[in-house]
Design brief:
Helix content is about 20%, strand content about 40%. The termini are far apart. By secondary structure, the protein is α+β, with helices and mostly antiparallel strands. The protein has 2 helices and 7 strands, in the order H-E-E-E-E-E-E-H-E.
């Protein structure tokens, strides 16, 4: 299993990335990320084997998440909070969500 230090590191990183689970929904509200972590305005990582991509955007007040399904459909969510069905698909690895792109306000980043 994982040691306590490794678990602590993983939990801290999820906190930095602003990934949370509220009322059965995944939410993305990163307030502890450094601008230096973004390459060409983006930061990519995975959560439950689903590719996620943060994009730094000017003129945004709140994050916007777009889930792209395997059949090419785009589901757009305001405030960076996915619905229960999409969240469940990601967390239970149902394989219906190809990736999620989260546009975050650039003024949320630490410079």
């Amino acid at each position: 299993g994982l040691t306590g230090q490794v678990k602590e590191g993983l939990l801290c990183r999820l906190g930095e990335l602003g990934v949370d689970f509220e009322d059965g929904r995944l939410s993305f509200r990163p307030h502890l990320l450094r601008a230096a972590e973004f390459v060409d305005g983006a930061l990519s990582f995975t959560h439950a084997r689903t590719p996620l991509r943060y994009e730094s955007c000017e003129g945004f007040d709140e994050p916007r998440a777009t889930a792209i399904t395997n059949d090419g459909a785009e589901l757009v969510f305001t405030n960076g909070v996915l619905d229960i069905e999409t969240s469940s698909s990601i967390l239970f690895n149902r394989g219906t969500v190809a990736k999620v792109i989260i546009q975050i306000p650039s003024n949320w980043l630490i410079f």
